[in-house]
Design goal:
alpha/beta, Nucleotidyltransferase, domain 5, 2 domains, 13 helices
């Protein structure tokens, strides 16, 4: 019998959702951690989507796809963890509470809603204690302390990080070099080639003109170019990368201090996620790791094989009473989740 045809008793399934700007992913599993349904859709950030309701529609689309693959109904979900970009203030959480109640009446009553920064924490330590540092399109940093204390960066960040930050700093360096106000850099030729523009003036025009200007995705697409130029030895690009890594480490230090992890007499799990930090040989990750011990004493890097949406699913299971704080139980669930994840291309961006 296929998954789509399997009939299960009600309220035996669990839902984890990780929503960002580039994509939204949803997983449905049994209590043992076997993933039986997966769904993917577009931007689920109420700040990043054209309208908040469109973000809600994308999240629900991913959930419905995952449920359909599982042969389940929304009423079969015994516990759900929504980890959503743009849940930065109490009113954002209230918005999602109201929207989920309106769109799913009588269902998903056992749910938690947090910023997407929390999604990856259990990918490092299944107990849910530690720090998650995400560098994707943008940045998300969140921590859960030993006493359950929570802190996430949200709008406290005063620096653009992730692909957005790398792109912005690269454009600034190229434009300052063109004006004679900054050093010459190999980023100039690299960005002109990447975008197919003949001159720096043409690039600036395309980025900033009123009509037919570059989309956010197009602007940020040069992030890998910036890290490649840095890795090739360009000093301007290398400075941009080092500054990015240092900022990630410093904000992680804030997260540790705000949640009691800086004082905890135990190793501190730090999980890296997002393409900027997990790309093979990422110079941003190298810079972060060089700076991290000064800000998070006892930091233990976790490069887990599970994506953040799996961490959201583990949150749903842990919050429902699955004893993920017990090593034996956690190991069994992690093995089950890992062995039943959808193909890697499901999460490719």
């Amino acid at each position: 019998m296929s998954k789509a045809q399997t009939v299960r008793p009600a309220s035996t399934l669990f839902l984890g959702v990780d929503a960002g700007n580039s994509k939204t992913a949803a997983l449905v599993s049994t209590a043992s951690g076997e993933v039986v349904g997966a769904g993917r859709s577009g931007c689920g950030d109420i700040y990043g989507a054209p309208t908040p309701e469109e973000a809600v529609a994308e999240v629900l689309a991913a959930v419905r796809t995952a449920l359909a693959q599982a042969g389940a109904d929304i009423g079969d979900i015994a516990g759900a963890a929504f980890r959503l970009a743009g849940v930065d203030w109490a009113e954002d959480r209230d918005y999602w509470d109201e929207a989920l109640t309106r769109h799913c009446p009588g269902a998903l009553s056992a749910r938690t809603i947090l910023n997407d920064g929390y999604a990856a924490i259990r990918c490092g330590d299944p107990s849910g204690v530690g720090i998650s540092v995400t560098g994707g399109t943008a940045a998300a940093i969140a921590a859960r302390g030993p006493g359950g204390e929570l802190w996430d960066m949200g709008w406290w960040s005063q620096h653009a990080m992730g692909a957005v930050g790398l792109a912005n700093e690269a454009f600034r360096a190229v434009f300052l070099a063109e004006l004679g106000l900054g050093p010459q850099t190999a980023l100039t030729e690299a960005l002109l080639t990447h975008y197919g523009k003949p001159t720096v003036a043409a690039l600036n025009h395309w980025l900033t003109r009123r009509h037919d200007h570059a989309t956010g995705q197009e602007r940020n697409s040069c992030a890998r170019v910036v890290t490649a130029v840095a890795a090739a030895g360009d000093p301007v690009a290398a400075d941009i990368v080092r500054a990015q890594g240092a900022r990630f480490a410093r904000y992680a230090g804030v997260a540790a201090r705000r949640t009691g992890l800086a004082q905890a007499d135990r190793p501190v799990s730090v999980v890296l996620s997002g393409s900027v930090l997990t790309a093979q040989g990422s110079p941003v990750a190298e810079a972060l790791l060089a700076e991290l011990p000064a800000h998070v004493p006892g930091a233990v890097l976790r490069r887990g094989s599970l994506p953040p949406v799996a961490g959201a699913l583990l949150d749903a299971l842990g919050e429902a009473g699955v004893p993920l704080h017990e090593p034996e139980a956690a190991h069994a669930v992690l093995e089950s989740v890992t062995g039943s994840m959808p193909p890697q291309e499901f999460l490719a961006t």
